[in-house]
Design a protein that fits this description.
alpha/beta; Immunoglobulin-like; TIM Barrel; eight-stranded parallel barrel; six-stranded antiparallel β-sheet; elongated
Length: 692
């Protein structure tokens, strides 16, 4: 028998994953039902077979349910997998152990998917030559005194973007398109725009091959990345060199922080890339299928699916809760991220029985963790099985993607009548949803568009989705879009319709920036980017999804408008209040914090089911901040609004979305002397007070 190449010791079970020290590497993995475990070592990421297989002895290499081994003097950069042997009585116990499968370390921080073939991992038997594998990497990164930022969400302007798609288009002009480094090159653009945080669509390593068969046959892939398999590793496809993915991500974060911009990660803890019964075995299904997933109560070979993705992580099992918290801590402590947005977060609120729990351990553990107390936590407060918790998500710190805000503002701007009372509530921070539970305006993440749905351009250009390119006969994606094409479906040369569409886009941006709460922009909306009516481009890693940087010049007027609206918001603290408006004077002020109007002063149309008009006056919230007056006309006819008198001050026209020059800097504003001002149809007007 050949002697092993390396001396080994029993190792330690107190740190999972591969831990590098001066004299070797400690490997540790969790598996409750495994009876035997082997560690496979590879020289290169493309090696089809291991050069060394180390068999663990359960008497000395197992402590409780942890398997561990220390390999002395193992070279840095070595690739590895695990193999586990044990029961396969899946329908009875849920165990899916297959002694021939090459298993990825769930705690791996660097992985390679160069050889990965999903189909082979879906079938029983040996897949070692086509498996993903982890890599041993010594961590000696120099952060140069960088620390996570703390920019309060109360003052945040979030920009949702896809790392790959942001610079993959040929027009981006970056040295390494589609990478963390490419994003870094574009940070000055984001600084100039005025955003405070980027929210990155999934960057934890995911499976691009996770798409329906007919979509795969068309040559498409899982582009968005909502198919995570490794929760500690950056996606290698976003790195210039896969082995350096971790440090390239850190370089990007460090550059964002130098620019004063925080980094929020979109994390997918609700399901994994392993899918359902017929999905691949990557790691969790083998190491602890019955622990990590919700399984059918009667047939344990089946998965309870609350996510629409084949499986649901059993997040409130103590082991899984610990795993997920450790992942968050890793990204804060070792990757310096500033917060997290949790995809389909209501799935995390489901207990082990599948029912929603208001005191779900994982959610409260995240909220109450001292080490996460400065990290932003944002919930997509629904799941795919009907659990909708917007305004009622467990906890107090949790901010929420406010889907009700999106739907109400979309309906109002397209001209739906009778929306005025709820528009006022949404624009003032959704106090009906948050104030009664002691929460704040910053708990509401306000958005009009996001990655999932129409872009802003398509929202005003299409009445229906057009997803034929996805290969699913237009069955995928949302049907309830609350959009309006302004008279013609899709592209048109009609100048009147083009002008109306751009005005409507400006209306959406204006209302978003004039609302209490936290505004979120979708990348590309600032340059009026279209996806040709496709509202579900999850599989489109092509020019349909990529940011087209030529639009910066083509649609420069839209870009300048968005910059101006962000600047207006930032120069008015009254738009970013940390408490809800009361309609009464604040301490030190003689005027109420807000006064509601309709077309006439102090006569809001709360009960008029035909009304499409709303106005309000905001008092300044800090010393030397002057009042702001906002008027909204979403009717199809012009109408004259009464203007409130302001003793010792005069109004200046800061914004008129129907104008050829919609946004005006304070120094260039035209003074308004009239007591009424006519608003064009479908328009927003803002007046800023200044000394007479």
């Amino acid at each position: 028998m050949r002697s092993p190449r390396y001396r080994v010791r029993p190792g330690s079970w107190d740190t999972a994953g591969a831990t590098v020290s001066n004299d070797g590497v400690n490997f540790c993995v969790f598996s409750r039902y495994a009876e035997r475990m082997s560690l496979l070592l590879f020289e290169r990421e493309t090696s089809k077979e291991p050069y060394e297989v180390l068999h663990l002895n359960p008497r000395i290499n197992r402590t409780f349910f942890f398997w561990h081994i220390f390999v002395e003097n193992l070279p840095d950069g070595t690739y590895y997998n695990w193999r586990a042997t044990g029961p396969g009585d899946t329908s009875e116990t849920g165990s899916r152990l297959d002694s021939e499968k090459a298993l990825l370390d769930p705690w791996a921080t660097t992985i390679s998917d160069r050889l990965w073939d999903r189909a082979t991992a879906c079938r029983p038997g040996n897949n070692v030559a086509k498996a993903m594998r982890a890599q041993v990497i010594r961590d000696d990164y120099d952060w140069e005194e960088d620390q996570p930022l703390y920019v309060s969400l109360n003052n945040a302007i979030i920009y949702e973007m896809h790392v790959g798609g942001f610079t993959r288009h040929p027009s981006s002009g970056v040295v390494h398109p589609g990478t963390f480094e490419g994003v870094t090159e574009k940070i000055p653009y984001l600084q100039d725009l005025g955003i405070t945080h980027v929210e990155l669509m999934p960057v934890m390593a995911f499976d691009p091959q996770d798409v329906p068969p007919q979509t795969a046959k068309m040559g498409m892939e899982n582009y968005w990345g909502y198919s995570t398999h490794s929760f500690f590793a950056p996606h290698p496809g976003f790195a210039v060199t896969a082995i350096n993915a971790r440090d390239e991500f850190r370089d990007m974060v460090k550059a964002f922080h130098r620019a004063g911009i925080g980094v929020i990660l979109d994390v997918v803890f609700n399901h994994t890339a392993e899918g359902g019964k017929n999905g691949p075995v990557i790691s969790f299904k083998a190491f602890g299928n019955e622990i990590f997933y919700h399984l059918d109560f009667e047939d344990r070979s089946l998965y309870r699916d609350y996510t629409g993705c084949g499986n649901t992580m059993n997040c409130n099992h103590p082991m899984v809760t610990r795993f997920l918290i450790d992942a968050l801590l890793y990204w804060v402590r070792h990757m310096h991220v500033d917060g997290f947005r949790f995809d389909l977060a209501s799935a995390l609120a489901r207990g082990e029985d599948g029912n929603p729990h208001h005191h779900a351990p994982v959610l409260w553990a995240i909220e109450l963790s001292p080490s996460l107390n400065r990290a932003h936590i944002i919930a997509e407060a629904w799941d795919a099985a009907g659990l909708y918790q917007v305004g009622d998500f467990p906890g107090y710190r949790w901010a929420e993607w406010n889907g009700r805000y999106r739907d109400v503002i979309r309906s109002f701007v397209r001209g739906d009548a009778g929306m005025v009372p709820e528009v006022a509530t949404r624009m003032s921070g959704s106090s009906d949803m948050y104030e009664g539970r002691g929460r704040l305006p910053m708990n509401s993440i306000n958005f009009i568009t996001c990655h999932d749905g129409f872009t802003l351009c398509d929202l005003v250009s299409y009445n229906a989705k057009h997803n034929e390119a996805n290969g699913e006969d237009n069955r995928d994606g949302h049907d309830h879009n609350l959009s309006w094409n302004c008279g013609i479906e899709g592209p048109t040369d009609d100048p009147e319709i083009q002008a109306l569409r751009r005005r409507q886009a400006r209306n959406f941006i204006s209302i978003l920036m004039l609302s209490q709460g936290v505004p979120m922009l979708l990348s590309g909306d600032e340059v009026f980017r279209s996806k040709s009516g496709n509202n579900n481009t999850y599989c489109q890693n092509n020019e349909l999804s990529w940011s087209d940087w030529d639009l910066v010049d083509t649609n420069s007027e839209m870009l300048e408008f968005v910059r101006s609206m962000i600047a207006l918001r930032r120069r008015h603290p009254t738009l970013t209040r940390d408490r809800f408006l009361r309609g009464k004077p604040d301490y030190g002020h003689s005027r109420p914090d807000i006064i509601w109007h309709g077309v006439d002063l102090e006569q809001p149309n709360w009960t008029d089911a035909t009304s499409r008009q709303l106005a309000f006056t905001l008092e300044g919230s800090v010393d030397d901040e002057q009042p702001l007056h906002v008027m909204l006309n979403m009717g199809s006819e012009p109408i004259a609004f009464a203007l409130p008198p302001i003793a010792g001050l005069q109004w200046g026209l800061a914004l008129d979305t129907s104008s050829e020059r919609p946004a005006v800097e304070p120094a260039d504003q035209r003074p308004i002397a009239e007591d009424r001002l006519q608003l064009g149809p479908f328009s927003v007007v803002v007046l800023e007070a200044r000394p007479a």
